[in-house]
Design a protein that fits this description.
It comes from Cryobacterium lyxosi. The N and C termini lie far apart (about 65 Å). Helix content is about 0%, strand content about 25%. It has a domain at about 80-185: Tumour Suppressor Smad4. By secondary structure, the chain is mostly beta strands. The strands form two sheets. Strands 2-1-11-10-7-8 form a six-stranded antiparallel beta sheet, with no helix packed on it.
Length: about 190
């Protein structure tokens, strides 16, 4: 089984010594980028009414039927703008939160996203998880997820800008995002 001169295995080959890749053809993550946390504070009135449908615990028998508590004012509830992404593949997607875009987007175990948008790319120029997007103060932002072919943004009236992986870039409506051989516009 082993060579008497050098001690190496006679039955092992170069191929048998390699470990199988759990996600073949994926981009390699060089370093895990820290996830930035944004805290948005909303002033809370002194008396916050219970939301509609909340369970009320009654310790004594009431003398009159309890009134249905009013809903929270619209100013207290967070709202999200709707953005429409129109891809060069013909795909049109409306998004209202955060998400990932790629050939086969996959969130990390500690991440939660509203949308996972799969781009049909037979040439495989788009990485499996190419781009992350989200919203902050009703503005749309994108962030490259260390993709193999990179990401370029074109804001209206400005020159093209290559994205630095892990950094968020705010895009106004009418911007175009180029992900490898494909692109999408933000409306």
């Amino acid at each position: 089984m082993f060579c008497g001169e050098c001690g190496s295995s006679r039955t092992a080959t170069v191929e048998s010594r390699k470990r199988r890749d759990p996600r073949p053809n994926d981009t390699t993550i060089i370093a895990r980028l820290p996830r930035t946390t944004v805290v948005i504070s909303v002033p809370i009135p002194a008396e916050v009414p219970a939301p509609v449908g909340a369970v009320t615990v009654v310790t004594a028998a009431p003398t009159a039927p309890a009134a249905v508590p009013p809903a929270l004012p619209a100013a207290v509830l967070p709202t999200r703008a709707t953005f429409v992404l129109t891809f060069s593949t013909g795909q049109v997607v409306s998004v209202r939160g955060s998400g990932l875009i790629g050939r086969k987007p996959l969130a990390q175990p500690d991440e939660i996203f509203d949308d996972l948008i799969q781009v049909a790319d037979t040439d495989r120029s788009v990485s499996k998880t190419h781009l992350e997007f989200g919203q902050h103060d009703d503005e749309f932002w994108v962030s490259d997820r260390v993709s193999a072919n990179g990401t370029v943004i074109r804001r209206p009236g400005e020159t093209a800008e290559a994205l630095e992986p892990g950094r968020r870039y705010v895009l106004p409506r009418g911007s175009r995002v180029e992900i490898a051989d494909h692109s999408f516009s933000v409306a």
